[in-house]
Amino acid sequence: MRMVDIIAQKRNGDKLTEEEIQFFIENYMSDKIPDYQVASLMMAIYFQGMDEEETANLTKYMVQSGDEIDLSKVQGHKVDKHSTGGVGDKMTFIVGPLVAAAGIPVAKMSGRGLGHTGGTIDKLESIPGFDVELSNEQFIKNVNKYKLAVVGQTGNLAPADKKLYALRDVTATVNSIPLIASSIMSKKIASGADSIVLDVKTGSGAFMKSLEDSKKLAKEMVKIGKELNRNTIAVISDMNQPLGYEIGNANEVKEAIEVLQGKNIEDLRELGIELAAHMTVLGGVYSTYAEATERLEQLIQNGKAFEAFRNFIKAQNGDVSVIDDVSKLPTSKFHIEVLATTSGYVHAMDAEAIGTAAMHLGAGRATKDDKINHGVGITLHKKIGDYVAMDEPLVTLHADTESLNQVIDIIRKAFTINEKKVDKNKMIYDVIK
Ligand code: URA
């Protein structure tokens, strides 16, 4: 078999066989195929696409390029959740405890963030003492006892994806649905869960800006999951504005705790219940979606979801006094309001720009080695559909510096305010099974 023939085949729009995909991944990983040939194949895939079977095979060999986490010692049906990423996304802190309280084990490996705010692991580190590195044995023990553990990524998961992603990044081939779908699913499948619920974001703050592309990506990932024997469901959710009102690290943890304690922050609660409902049905603890939503609401009302969160933090050495009194979480020196310069209804928000503003404050990393400042961030006061009067605050910036002209400018430009009344945004667009 020769790589040049594989490239030509895909360039001509023909299907690659399983053996050809296996050949290319294995030989690329052992440095027998150079980057320039793989870059050429990525471009051919970008233009010609891949069918379901090819995409599933690509995913399979990316998974096999590294370690697969063995969760066989975790009792019960393991269900994982994955978000394609957005601004203010603190869903793991809401969904994880909810599902754990319902009895589903969640053994989650999460990443650090590059971009707007920290990733799940960075956000958890806002809690003093919280340990993101557990031994394998302790990780399994915690999941069995408390049904929830979240650790930083360990092991060598899907190294072929890492190598391919770096190459795609510099060859303008990231934006291909089969390549994105196989990249995300290879990491999820290697993480060891039995079933997967995907939260595919759509809108101004999402990787996929249009609903049509988000649906295509979701369908592709669901098919890969099924093809590789994982029950997979994708929820397509709104990312035309940040999730909830808090964007940052410690303030996002605080907001998630408030939801777990019963505060009705509508979008967070709706999406949290939706994702948790699919997870608990897939995991077999509830038999219907309707039953699941009702029971999950009860787990918030009766304090069990919050208790599951508290137990999980305590089991990973986090200081629970900050969970019981969130005013003890890290905060910033200054709290500066950005006022509206006109009155009207908020029609649109550039969620990505608001995320970038949070990064400029220090809530996220511009480069891999940047340090996260857990106390800084943004509190939104208005969301799409809300009325704002001139000189009313749009947001509060939590900052450690007072020179914020650039950030204030980004925020003002990120809001589109118009006299005409407008509806609130829809949260869930579709569910792909
Ligand atoms: N996120 C991933 O993990 N992979 C992609 O290809 C794109 C986004």
TrEMBL record:
**Protein name, entry field:** Pyrimidine-nucleoside phosphorylase
Family as reported in the entry's similarity comment: Belongs to the thymidine/pyrimidine-nucleoside phosphorylase family.
| SUPFAM superfamilies in the cross-refs | Nucleoside phosphorylase/phosphoribosyltransferase catalytic domain, Nucleoside phosphorylase/phosphoribosyltransferase N-terminal domain, Pyrimidine nucleoside phosphorylase C-terminal domain
The GO terms describing molecular function are: pyrimidine-nucleoside phosphorylase activity
Q: What is its EC number?
A: 2.4.2.2
Give the first-level EC class, as a single word.
transferase
Query: Subunit details for this protein?
Result: Homodimer.
InterPro entries per UniProt: Glycosyl_Trfase_fam3 (IPR000312), Glycosyl_Trfase_fam3_N_dom (IPR017459), Glycosyl_Trfase_fam3_N_dom_sf (IPR036320), Nuc_phospho_transferase (IPR035902), PYNP-like_C_sf (IPR036566), PYNP_C (IPR013102), Pyrmidine_PPas_bac/euk (IPR018090), Pyrmidine_PPase_CS (IPR017872)
Keywords of the record: Glycosyltransferase, Transferase
Q: Does the keyword Transferase apply?
A: yes
Positions of the Pyrimidine nucleoside phosphorylase C-terminal domain: 345-418
Note the NCBIfam families from the entry: PRK05820.1 (NF004490), PRK06078.1 (NF004747), Y_phosphoryl (TIGR02644)
